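so im writing up the methods section and need the Biopolymer transporter ExbD record in one place, dumping it here so i stop losing it
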Amino acid sequence: MLPQRRPRKKGRVEIIPMIDVMLFLLVFFIMITLQMITDKGLKLNLPTSSQSKALPHPHFVVNIQTDGSVVVKGKHMNLEALQQLLASDGDVAKTDVTIAADKKVPFQDFVRVMDHCQKAGVTRIGIATQAKA
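--- predicted struct ---
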């Protein structure tokens, strides 16, 4: 007597694992894209410089308005809050900060902001200027 053959099953495409992988990729690309969005600064009348250079994308852009108020990522904050924000960034030695101050901001206000950045441990500080035409 010959052994009976079992009928062959057709292959199936499992859709659930494929959906899981696609959702994972979607979330991954969304998170990467959010990290690439640049921090929009305020409309300031920046000082001009003939020696201005393009800086790498900073972690924080600190905007100083003409009244001396400080704005970071769209939030007004005092200097102590700025110092705490920068100190809590993780590896502060690798934190890039760019300070953008209006032309009419007193130099003392600029120095206070820079001083609080340094108190937080930030050593990589850039100054935003406009290129001279």
